[in-house]
Amino acid sequence: MDYIRETTHFPGLNLILRVDSETTREGVAIASETRYLIASLSADEVSPKRLMELVRGHWSVEDGLPFLKDRWWDEDRQWSRRPGLAERLAMLRDAALTGLRLLPDVAEDLPIRARADHLGRNLRKALNFIGARK
Q: What are the counts of helices (DSSP H) followed by strands (DSSP E) for the chain?
């Protein structure tokens, strides 16, 4: 551990984790992945069970908004030579998702994609929502 700490100069490094995961379909492995993670917690502070809870919690965040933005708008492959344009487009996508979450008169448990489809089928409602039509 000291070698890694000294080599990487990563502040607070106390644990290195290796997480192996396997995706199966009908009992047959179709993909496997190994991830390495680091933590500032010491082995005395946290149990292996708690570490896995933290790892899963991290991926629930990662699978949330970034997943939606990349899946729907292919955000990971967006780029621009104009300074600041990519950041502004990302902000517009964030605003669109926030607007879909706050959409009035829609069931709260309706997924974001269904909310977008709902507005796509109701142009008047969409225009009213963004304030373009009274």
A: 6, 2
In this prediction, residues 12-34 reach a mean pLDDT of 88
Tokens standing for residue 126: 């969409």
DSSP E strand stretches across 26-131:
28-39
Q: 76 and 41 in one domain?
A: no
Residue 5 CB burial class (10 angstroms; 0-12, 13-18, ≥19): middle
Domain count of the chain? 2
pLDDT over threshold 70, residue 68? yes
Q: What is the pTM of this model?
A: 0.47
Higher pLDDT: 104 or 63? It is 104
State residue 49's pLDDT score.
92
With respect to residue 134, please indicate whether it lies within any of the assigned structural domains.
no
List the Cα angle 23/41/50 in 5-degree steps: 45
AA letter at 59: W
32 beta partners:
22
Cα angle at 65 between 10 and 23, to 5 degrees?
Answer: 80
